[in-house]
Amino acid sequence: MFQGSMVALATPMHADGSLDWPALDRLLEFHVESGTDAIVAVGTTGESATLDFDEHCEAIAHVVRTIDGRLPVIAGTGANSTREAIALTRCAKEAGADACLLVAPYYNKPTQEGLYLHHKAIAEAVDIPQILYNVPGRTAVDILPETVERLAAVPNIVGIKEATGSNERTAELVERVGSRLDLFSGEDANGLAFMLAGGHGVISVTANVAPRLMSEMCRAVREGDAERAREINRQLDGLHSALFLEANPIPVKWALQQMGMMEEGIRLPLTPLSAPFHAPVLDAMRQAGIEV
Q: What Gene Ontology cellular-component terms does the record carry (predicted)?
């Protein structure tokens, strides 16, 4: 259903933390023009954890209206409360999103049965394509492959964003559910290896800053040109690392500020990028051919 370079879109904010709608529109046009394959709105990189419920729904609706069918829009609607995740997913469906991305419930550390029932309940409550999001480093819980396989039997669960960074996990998912679910890397650093192993795309932080190169790399894999994909990825290697020198989305928002795409707006408890990391991020941007 979905494939290629899907940007985990940063949410522009003014210096006072209010949402910057004109900057959001600029970012969306930038991605349409740069060949991005899909927009993932209000996920982790979009600071979903710091937006209130109404802002979250409004941002999704704004992205859907602005994109106006030119690209698929995948809305981040996960929460650690099943009821809240259902409510956010309903908002996204009503706004016209093409699919939803649902992070594993964070902080409360459910069992595998709890994870299964949580995602099953959302899928049964809202008739929209849904993508699981497994990121144990942030949630403190791991959706194990056998649970993913159970969830693959739920009709409107269509994919998983896998962010363990494990090649072994990738291979197991390809074997268990690769013919039934779309498989997306949630780790830019292993996105190329993930796709070469049978994955369908990357939900990418790097694509915020270098959307054309990310799109070209993913396209090269799909066309069977692994050497070209590796060549492009070498240009992006610096960004894959530098954009995680502090917690995402701190570095990527700073990089976008240097590109003139947004103001210096980020919400507490996140803070602007620390000064010692400015030079490494700039170096990585230049390596990728980005003028700053």
A: cytosol
User: Which residues sit in the known binding site for pyruvate?
Assistant: 45, 203
The predicted-structure confidence for 144-172, as pLDDT tens digits, reads as follows 999 999 999 999 999 999 999 999 999 99
Q: Is residue 1 over pLDDT 90?
A: no
Domain count, the chain: 1
Domain presence at residue 122 = yes
The answer to whether residue 244 sits within a structural domain is no
120 tagged catalytic: no
Is the backbone of residue 224 left (phi > 0), alpha (psi -120 to 50) or beta?
left
106 in catalytic set: no
Task: Give residues with Cβ within 8 angstroms of 49, minimum separation 6.
Answer: none
Q: Quick check: helix, strand or coil at residue 266?
A: coil
Q: Return d(Cα 182, Cα 74) in angstroms, integer.
A: 13
Is residue 234 a part of any domain in this protein?
A: no
Give the span between the Cα atoms of 254 and 281, in whole angstroms.
9
Catalytic hit among 93, 116, 133, 253? 133
Domain holding 116, by residue range, is 4-225
CATH code of the domain containing 206: 3.20.20.70
Q: Return the closest-CA partner of residue 122 out of 96, 155, 94, 163.
A: 155
Among candidate residues 216, 278, 219, the one with its CA nearest the CA of residue 243: 278
* CB neighbour class for 28 (10 Å; exposed up to 12, middle 13-18, buried from 19): buried
Q: How many of the other CB atoms lie within 10 Å of CB of 66?
A: 17
Task: Please pick, among 93, 109, 116, 161, the residue that the annotation labels catalytic.
Answer: 161
What is d(CA 85, CA 2) in angstroms, rounded to the nearest whole number? 22
99-103/73-76 β-pairing: parallel
DSSP 111: -
Instruction: Enter the tokens of residue 5.
Output: 């370079």
